Amino acid sequence: MEIQEIGGTRKTVEAGVAFVREALAEANNVKREPVSASELTVALQCGGSDGYSGVSANPALGAASDPAGPARRHRDPVGDALRPMAQSHLLTRRAVSREVGEKLVALMRWW
User: Fold this and answer.
1) Residues 6+ apart with CB under 8 A from 46
2) Which of 45, 71, 85, 107 shows a CA-CA span of 20 to 30 A to 9?
3) In the chain, what's the furthest Cα-to-Cα distance?
4) Would the pTM of this model clear 0.85, i.e. be above it?
5) Per-residue pLDDT tens for 10-58?
6) How far, in Å, CA of 59 to CA of 2, rounded?
7) How far is CA 89 from each of CA 9, 94, 101, 106, rounded to the nearest angstrom?
């Protein structure tokens, strides 16, 4: 939702509330069942960086995506294409295998 398209903050909030009510009604019809945390996929998207991103937000997101353990880490997509380039040395240490880490390094060199 874009405030400019909808016509102001109040109208955007109202549209957001209406959307959530509709989504909740649909979500409440879904049959819930237990699944292993290893089945989860956590998508991470940068919302804009500031001086504290690397100190607080980024480590917090990393910790939040780790509870299911290393077997699942490679399934967590990162929605920020440029930031991993500067931090590929951190990502390679977390790769599921050396081969995957080397592929990441090769991709960063190509980029």
Assistant:
1) 53, 79, 80, 83
2) 45
3) 51
4) no
5) 999 999 999 999 999 899 998 989 988 777 776 766 666 666 666 666 6
6) 29
7) 41, 9, 9, 12
